[in-house]
């Protein structure tokens, strides 16, 4: 019996990072003195909600504690990949060639898109630069007013990110300015 | 003009030739957009330069104007190319093949009615659908050599309450192609939801009528103030807009035709970018605007003449 007690404690020792504040996996484990006459050896475990009784021996259905244990095991099993993870994909030589070709084609597409975007932004930037240079030549006053930037930049509340499908009301064509003009923005 | 590379004897001839080329392009009207008379129509007060004079090859001040690139950002994501959609489909199939088995014991606990209904609807998994030499590897009713098919049981609609029917009602996404697209309504802001739309305005002229709106910068005004004023004068007050920046995004200049040169020799327009979030552009009386259109970048090329397009194209976005 004493050996069994030690063996059980060894099995139930905390192996994973603790889920409870007292840094033990299953809460405070207090081992009851084993009885020489009962068929079962039991260990009482205190948890946040109550106590769990881990029994070694014949399982008995029903009882709140076994159900609680079942629920906990259920939840924990979701985290582990045991028996749920499918087999590793093993591609034949031809299949692997196909996969690699698809991957490289995608990389090419992504690279082309990135490059196009970069060029577009570069052209836009040089347009701005050219406009500012001309403005500076034309009028110093206008140039300086054009160089004023709000710090930090303020974006309007109505700013919207594109979605895959449009909203129910696509465009508010009947918008009217609010009665009280607070004039946060000029345009 | 740097003439260091030209031999001394030919320098005067070179200057004369350059002048000839400039004059001939001006005569053809490549650069000029309109007459000075029609430009001044758009301003309330008679013009007086608030800013210093711009240098011009053939004497005369340049009218400084503030223009507006008003755009509506895309409402929906860009259209996927056939390769992109095929690739995304390939990736999602790979993901399904590598997904963990559905934890049925968690969502449909043993002994419940829902679990019984769910199990009844699932396809039979016996491993006979695959013709391979290895033994089928079936755990939790899933062949681990392939992707899992999970079939959700149909809802018992009769037994449901109205409230739960609303909650579980299938979401029907709206179409990306609107009525405005089908009718080809160029004045609607609901067309081409995946593209940026720019406002083009038509003035009462025979040639070079379509352009971005612009107005002269008056005394004491900044570019931004002029743009705000221009927006209200041209399109009314019922537009929710936001000026992206005080800094000009594009610059265009042109000389007037010799017969139209009263006060100015030409015009310099500095365009500011602005975004519209709600409302409608309604051409106002007295603005000189005859027509307007919300167009994408590639469509602008059909409306506007070459020199103008060359000035503006790089400032706009393709998407």
Please count the helical segments of chain B.
Answer: 10
Oligomer: heterodimer
Share in β-strands of chain B: 15-25%
Rg of chain B to the nearest angstrom?
32 Å
Q: Find the structural class of chain B using helix and strand composition.
A: alpha+beta
Strand arrangement, largest sheet of chain A? 1-2-3
Shape of chain A: elongated
Largest sheet of chain A: 3 strands, antiparallel
Query: Are there runs of chain A of 5+ residues with pLDDT below 50, and where?
Result: 23-39
Percentage of helical residues of chain B?
25-40%
Describe the overall structure:
The complex is a heterodimer of chains A (about 190) and B (about 325). By secondary structure, chain A is mostly helical. Chain A has helices at about 1-10, 65-80, 95-140, 140-145; strands spanning about 30, 40-45, 50-55. In chain A, strands 1-2-3 form a 3-stranded antiparallel β-sheet. In chain A, strand 2 (about 40-45) and strand 3 form a beta hairpin. In chain A, helix 3 runs antiparallel to helix 4. The longest helix of chain A has about 45 residues, at about 95-140. Chain A is elongated and about 90 Å long. By secondary structure, chain B is α+β, with helices and mostly antiparallel strands. Chain B has helices at about 10-30, 35-40, 80-100, 105, 115-120, 160-170, 180-185, 225-235, 295-305, 305-310; strands spanning about 60-70, 195-205, 210, 215, 240-245, 250-255, 265-280, 290-295. In chain B, strands 1, 2, 3, 4, 5, 6, 7 and 8 form an 8-stranded mixed β-sheet that branches. The relative contact order of chain B is 0.20. Mean pLDDT of chain B is about 85; it is low at about 30-60. At the A-B interface, helix 2, helix 3 and helix 4 of A face helix 3, helix 8, strand 5, strand 6 and strand 7 of B.
């Amino acid at each position: 019996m004493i050996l069994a007690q030690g063996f059980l404690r060894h099995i139930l020792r905390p192996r994973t990072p603790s889920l409870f504040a007292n840094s033990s996996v299953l809460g405070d484990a207090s081992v009851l003195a084993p009885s020489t006459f009962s068929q079962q050896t039991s260990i009482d475990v205190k948890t946040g909600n109550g106590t769990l009784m881990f029994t070694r021996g014949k399982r008995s259905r029903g009882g709140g504690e076994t159900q609680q244990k079942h629920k906990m095991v259920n939840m924990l099993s979701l985290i582990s990949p045991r028996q749920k993870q499918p087999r590793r994909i093993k591609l034949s030589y031809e299949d692997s060639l196909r996969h690699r070709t698809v991957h490289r084609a995608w990389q090419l597409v992504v690279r082309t898109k990135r490059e196009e975007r970069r060029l577009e932004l570069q052209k836009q930037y040089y347009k701005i630069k050219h406009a500012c240079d001309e403005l500076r030549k034309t009028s110093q006053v206008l140039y300086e007013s054009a160089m004023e930037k709000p710090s930090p930049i303020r974006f309007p509340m109505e700013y919207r990110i594109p979605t895959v499908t449009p909203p129910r009301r696509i465009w508010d064509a009947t918008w009217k300015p609010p009665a009280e003009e607070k004039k946060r923005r000029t345009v | 003009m740097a003439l260091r590379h030209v031999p001394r004897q030919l320098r005067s001839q070179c200057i004369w030739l350059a002048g000839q080329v400039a004059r001939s392009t001006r005569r053809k009207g490549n650069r000029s957009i309109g007459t000075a008379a029609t430009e001044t129509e758009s301003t309330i007060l008679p013009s007086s330069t608030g800013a210093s004079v711009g240098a011009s090859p053939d004497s005369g001040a340049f009218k400084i104007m503030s223009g507006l690139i008003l755009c509506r950002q895309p409402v929906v994501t860009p259209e996927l190319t056939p390769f992109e959609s095929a690739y995304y489909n390939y990736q999602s199939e790979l993901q399904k093949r590598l997904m963990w088995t559905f934890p049925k014991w968690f969502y449909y606990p043993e002994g419940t009615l829902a679990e019984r209904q769910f199990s009844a609807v699932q396809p039979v998994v016996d491993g006979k659908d695959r013709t391979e030499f290895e033994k089928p590897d079936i755990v939790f009713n899933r062949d681990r050599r392939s992707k899992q098919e999970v079939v959700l049981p149909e809802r018992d609609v009769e037994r449901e309450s109205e409230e739960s029917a609303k909650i579980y009602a299938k979401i029907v996404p709206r179409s990306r192609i609107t009525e405005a697209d089908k009718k080809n309504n160029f004045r609607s802001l609901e067309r081409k939801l995946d593209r940026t739309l720019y406002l083009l305005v038509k003035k009462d002229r025979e040639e070079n009528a379509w352009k971005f709106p612009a107005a002269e910068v008056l005394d004491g005004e900044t570019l931004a103030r002029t743009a705000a004023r221009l927006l209200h004068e041209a399109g009314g007050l019922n537009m929710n807009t936001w000026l992206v920046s005080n800094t000009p995004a594009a610059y265009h200049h042109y000389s007037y035709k010799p017969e139209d040169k009263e006060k100015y020799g030409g015009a310099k327009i500095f365009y500011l970018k602005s975004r519209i979030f709600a409302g409608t552009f309604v051409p106002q009386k007295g603005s000189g605007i005859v027509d307007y259109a919300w167009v994408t970048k590639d469509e602008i090329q059909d409306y506007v003449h070459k020199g103008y397009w060359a000035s503006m194209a790089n400032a706009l976005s393709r998407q």
